[in-house]
Specification:
Rossmann fold; 2 domains; alpha/beta; 348 residues; Arc Repressor Mutant, subunit A; seven-stranded mixed β-sheet; binds S-adenosylmethionine
Length: 348
Amino acid sequence: MTEPGKKTEEMQQGIQQQAGKLLSQVAGYVGLRTIDIGLRFGLLDEIARRPEGITTEALATKKGLDPFYAHVWCRSAYASELLELGENQTYRLAPFVDKLLLDQGFPGYIGGISSIMMEPEIFDQFAEKLHSGERTWWDQCSTSFIQMVSNTGRPFYTRLIPGGLSKVPLLPDRLAKGGRILELACGAGIGLVRLAQTYPQSTITGVDGDASSLEIAKEAIRQGGLDTRVSLVQSTLEEFSASDEFDVAIINISMHECRDLEKVTSNVRSALKPGGYFVISDIPFPASTEGCRTVPARVMSGIQFFEALIDDQLLPTQAYVDVLSKHDFRNIENFELTPLHVVIYGQK
Ligand SMILES: C[S@@+](CC[C@H](N)C(=O)[O-])C[C@H]1O[C@@H](n2cnc3c(N)ncnc32)[C@H](O)[C@@H]1O
């Protein structure tokens, strides 16, 4: 029999452990808000320009901030390991924070996902609609939210084009020589521009169901001087139809949003030339609830709040493998580019 004193001690230890876990959530929230202020007000940018370190007073003067507030932010940024403390109470960026949070072209850029978690379209709207279960869609999201999603999708494209695509056998050659590329759910057009720039002999068709996203894409294509090689179609993926036209169909962080995964897969198969590839680049949600307690899966669980609002959920890798296999794609393979990024492909 356990002695009563020992039982109380065990309980106290258990409470302390659980309190520690819960408080780490509060600490994570403090870190996220600190990152957000640092990005929004250019504080991290300014500190990045001073590798020798900067005092809070100098930061306040440079950015026109209240010196006391600047001090409070810097201390929190140090506590959250965004900043290091140097000599004479100067602060500088912690290692790789410049790449991870500030460099949009860096393959591991996570500034976009940090900022988007703060947007009302995610947690606030979910809380508002928790009782009603009312859903929303992209055409009801603000332009700034669409831009932020696009910025979150950017590192996925950076990793995919050309790095990820180069792992698909024979595809790089086919695109280098000049092929026809279909980008499904092209959104604000970052992928279209990158594809057109990376494969200058190829032509690209972008399809999306949301008119305002296509407007942003149109402008990006115009600014890139790519109008002659990139065209846009407004259509749902379920309704898009083409026959034996494309060498490759690509979809970035959107396949999980299909209203009808089977129909879209079947449409893509028809649209591809024989031997053409379907490349799905997405966020791989754990196959079981028990798999959700890793840091990447906790971030993905946050994304699921928005996905619920638009009436879908992120899916596990196997769901894509299964649907490709069911629709007679062959040579189906998948590989992870990061714990938050998987590529699945198959050939017609
Ligand atoms: C998460 S965003 C990604 C956009 C882009 N691929 C990127 O990575 O930046 C999802 C996009 O898919 C589009 N979309 C979602 N479901 C769709 C459907 N069933 N038919 C057409 N477009 C759809 C949305 O309009 C939105 O532009």
